[in-house]
Design a protein that fits this description.
Layout: H1 2-6, H2 12-29, H3 33-54, H4 59-91
Length: 92
């Protein structure tokens, strides 16, 4: 959805290709403690490059689309954890 808003018009299939192919390093080596963070960062770079190429958009728009998606997920995670903590603290 964020790729479409940022200007990608090649369809969701191309976005999924970019995300799945770019996730490979993280999935293969992400279980190793120090290497896992490096592979996660490399996968993020590959997602941006893949979306840029497959959606035929600029690098700035690809970065914007990826980071907006990550920010939305982070906000949802913080909200979920905050509501869980609020529930736990109100019981005590």
């Amino acid at each position: 959805m964020w790729v479409y808003i940022a200007g990608g018009r090649e369809g969701i299939t191309e976005t999924w290709k970019a995300v799945i192919y770019a996730s490979t390093p993280s999935l293969l080596l992400g279980w190793i403690p120090v290497v896992g963070f490096v592979m996660w960062a490399w996968s993020l770079v590959l997602i941006i490059i893949g979306i840029r190429e497959l959606q035929e958009m600029t690098t700035t728009r690809a970065v914007l689309a990826v980071f907006i998606g990550y920010l939305i997920l982070a906000a949802l995670g913080v909200t979920l954890v905050g509501s869980m903590l609020a529930g736990i603290l109100s019981v005590s």
